[in-house]
């Protein structure tokens, strides 16, 4: 079946096929009232009877419509400071009764229970209260009981009832009323039920995670936004992004963002977040192929591009400063998929927008996620994101030779890069510019040889360059190879039982080595 609101096919197999149902009675109790007035107008015009409580009842009556109070229906007032209002058989019986079930019909007639055909309700703002850093007593009071129960009851009985569990469903309901009047099909009711269970499950997930306090005793994750992508990593794979991309970026122009674009964008913003000084980076397949820190954007771009002008073709570009026209004119000369910056000069945009498929993003100021997870086997791996950043204070010189001040700057620069490079990884850098990296190799020696060959192919002189490794050296082979190429200083985490072999080689050949004590594997 084709859905009226979303364009998504919905299966209604194995259900008692119920025909169109007319809305006669509606229970409405919401905090968010924007957009509700249009719905109420249409329901009232269709002769629907309203039941409500508190502020929602007052809102309905302010529009000139009569409304039956829940208290008059149940015979009980709101009690326990508002904790109990709608939890009553006359409410839930009206929602859960099966319209074609003879026994149900007899019982609601016996107890004078009205059939409730539409429930519009939202939930206490638990997540919003939590985000404000409220005291625990206030947070607990924002755990909704009546609302969540109404949502589950109405969604369960979608054969007969429409459930609106969030203001996000106001527009689809408004469309339904405009197109069909106060009449719905089974397919439409099932779609609203699906949306309602998404709301309730996400709400319960947030509450559980609050009580779990980061212990990770169970894996519970809910995201209320989803976007179907053109395809996954390859055209034969389906792909969906669950997340609020617009909260992080503003897309100024360009084609639809793909699965692989998203992977590269994540890698790019994670990398650039390491740098305070003006830095430009070019990424390909989640790894930096060029990056440099310089006084101006144009200089940083040119140095980054020099690192690997071949791989830059079709890459992802990111800068931590607004793009000016002069820089944009140079950047525009190559083909790239995506550019990300905190802002762009108007003249710069005029240049960059000449290629209509080019994705241009403004990165908004928003916090990074602190948790990472991925599916594998029959479960999920979760871990803290690697947010460890080493500074001068974290460096321990383990050789007789102490690195010079410029070498220390380059070592810290290279260490940031190797942290964001697929393991096994080696990074070669000089003057805050990536010369080359060896990425994703099964041997650290192979990663180093790859980096050296690549650096030489682009004309870099490795004399005085530095080397960074994402993990320790179990043997002195890497420092020996590096020394033979003129590399003068090394940064690595250390931790091998044979650390001394690499240190002794450096001492013998007048190389400097620092250890950080922090490994940066990335798989």
Q: How would you explain this protein's 3D organization?
A:
Helix 1 (36-45) runs parallel beside helix 9 (170-180) and helix 17 (444-457) packs parallel to helix 18. With 523 residues, the protein is of the alpha/beta class. The longest helix is centred in the middle third of the chain and has 27 residues, at 186-212. Strand 19 (426-430) and strand 20 form a beta hairpin. It is built from 19 helices and 23 strands. Residues 1-16 have low confidence and may be disordered.
- What fraction strand? 15-25%
Summed over residues and divided by their number, the pLDDT gives a mean of: 92
| Helix content estimate | 25-40%
Q: Could you say which structural class the secondary elements and strand pairing correspond to?
A: alpha/beta
Secondary structure tally, helices: 19
Model regions low in confidence, pLDDT < 50 over at least 5 residues: 1-16
Question: What's the end-to-end separation, in Å?
Answer: 42 Å
Rg, Cα atoms, Å: 31 Å
State the total count of DSSP E strands.
23
> What best-fitting shape do the alpha-carbon axes yield?
elongated
What's the story with the biggest beta sheet?
6 strands, mixed
User: In which order are the strands of the major sheet placed?
Assistant: 10-15-14-13-11-12
